[in-house]
Q: What sequence folds into this?
C-alpha cells in the first residue's frame, strides 16, 4: 500500500510536518499522517470556541477559568494552556523518543502586551511549566529578544516567531550563539519565518497602492525571503531549526520540501488537501529565484527590500515592520474577542446575582 504524502516526504527528505492550531481530532489525524510537532498561537482560544465540535468543551473551560481568576487577561492565558494540554499530551510520546527535535507544542502569550519583555517572560515561564514538550513562542521584536536572552540562559526551548525579514533571523541566531558562549547552554531553538502572512501583507500593499507587478512575481515574495533566510543559516552555521510558518497556500509547504526544516500548516484546507492530492515528493527549496524576480520585487515593494536585505531593518524596527504588525493585528483581534466574551459572561453572572 502506498504511504501517505507526509510519510513519504519524511522518508525521502529531511522536511518535517507540524500542524497549526489543531482541534483534538485534527491532532490525532495529523499525528497519524506523520506530524511530529504542533504550533498554537494567540488565536487558538477563539478558534476552539468557534469550532462546531469543540465549542461546548472550550466554553465550559472558559467558565471554569473565570471562576479561578478575576483578571480576564490572566483567564485567557490560563484558558489557552487548558485547551492546549490535550494536544500537548498527544505529542508527548514523540518528544519522549526524540526530545531535541520532535513532539514539541509551542504556546504564545498575550499579543496585546507583547511589547513588554517582563510580561513575555512571565507568560513564557507559565507556559513552559505545563509540560516538558512545550516550547514557548515569542516574537522576534526588541522586547521579544530581550526576553529570549533570559529564557535561553535558563535553558528554555523556544519557537521564535513573527520573523518576516532576514535581519530578524540573523539577530535571533546571533543572540542564541552569544548566550550559548556565555552559559554553555544550547536549548532547542526553532526559527519561524512567516512567508504566507508576509505574502498577504504585500498583496494588500499592492492593491492599496495600485502597484503594477506581475502576480507570478508577487507569488514568490515570501518564499524568496524564506529561501534567503535558510541559505544564510546554512552558510553561517547557525543551529536553530528553521520553521516555515503562516502558510496561506499549498505551495508554502511543497516549495519548502527538501530542506532540513519544519513546515507548520493548518489541517483543514492545507494538510488534508495535500493528503487527498498525493503530489509527488520533489525537492523544491533549492530552486533558485530568478534575478529578474528579485529585482522587480526590490524595485516595486520597499517592504520586500527591507525583508530581503541582511541589514534591511534595525532591531528597533522589527515590531513596527508592516508584515509583523499585520500578523500581530490578527492575533490581537482574536485575543480581544475572547476577552469580550469573558467580560460578557462575568456581567451575566453579576446580573443574575443581583436579582
A:
Amino acid at each position: 500500500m502506498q504511504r501517505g504524502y507526509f510519510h513519504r516526504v519524511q522518508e525521502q527528505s529531511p522536511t518535517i510536518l507540524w500542524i497549526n492550531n489543531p482541534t483534538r481530532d485534527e491532532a490525532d489525524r495529523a499525528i497519524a499522517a506523520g506530524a511530529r510537532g504542533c504550533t498554537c498561537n494567540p488565536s487558538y482560544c477563539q478558534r476552539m470556541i468557534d469550532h462546531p465540535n469543540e465549542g461546548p468543551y472550550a466554553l465550559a473551560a472558559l467558565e471554569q477559568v473565570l471562576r479561578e481568576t478575576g483578571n480576564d487577561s490572566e483567564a485567557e492565558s490560563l484558558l489557552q494552556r487548558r485547551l492546549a494540554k490535550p494536544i500537548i499530551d498527544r505529542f508527548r510520546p514523540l518528544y519522549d523518543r526524540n526530545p531535541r527535535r520532535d513532539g514539541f507544542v509551542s504556546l504564545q502569550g498575550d499579543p496585546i502586551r507583547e511589547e513588554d519583555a517582563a510580561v513575555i517572560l512571565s507568560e513564557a515561564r507559565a507556559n513552559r511549566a505545563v509540560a516538558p514538550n512545550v516550547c514557548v513562542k515569542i516574537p522576534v521584536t526588541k522586547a521579544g529578544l530581550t526576553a529570549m536572552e533570559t529564557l535561553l540562559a535558563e535553558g528554555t526551548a523556544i519557537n521564535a516567531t513573527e520573523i518576516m525579514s532576514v535581519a530578524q533571523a540573523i539577530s535571533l541566531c546571533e543572540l542564541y550563539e552569544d548566550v550559548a558562549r556565555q552559559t554553555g547552554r544550547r536549548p532547542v531553538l526553532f526559527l519561524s519565518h512567516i512567508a504566507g502572512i508576509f505574502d498577504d501583507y504585500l498583496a494588500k500593499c499592492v492593491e492599496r497602492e495600485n502597484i503594477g507587478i506581475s502576480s507570478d512575481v508577487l507569488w514568490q515574495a515570501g518564499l524568496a525571503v524564506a529561501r534567503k533566510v535558510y541559505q544564510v543559516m546554512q552558510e553561517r552555521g547557525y543551529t536553530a531549526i528553521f520553521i516555515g510558518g503562516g502558510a496561506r497556500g499549498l505551495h508554502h509547504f511543497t516549495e519548502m520540501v527538501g530542506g532540513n526544516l519544519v513546515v507548520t500548516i493548518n489541517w483543514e484546507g492545507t494538510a488534508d488537501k495535500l493528503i487527498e492530492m498525493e503530489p509527488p515528493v520533489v525537492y523544491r527549496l533549492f530552486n533558485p529565484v530568478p534575478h529578474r524576480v528579485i529585482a522587480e520585487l526590490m524595485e516595486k515593494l520597499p517592504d520586500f527590500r527591507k525583508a530581503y536585505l541582511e541589514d534591511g531593518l534595525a532591531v528597533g524596527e522589527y515590531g513596527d515592520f508592516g508584515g509583523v504588525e499585520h500578523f500581530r493585528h490578527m492575533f490581537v483581534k482574536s485575543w480581544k474577542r475572547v476577552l469580550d466574551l469573558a467580560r460578557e459572561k462575568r456581567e451575566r453572572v453579576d446580573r443574575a446575582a443581583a436579582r
Observations:
- The mean pLDDT is 96.
- Residues 5-354 form a domain with the TIM Barrel fold (CATH 3.20.20.70).
- The longest helix spans residues 322-354.
- The chain has one domain: 5-354.
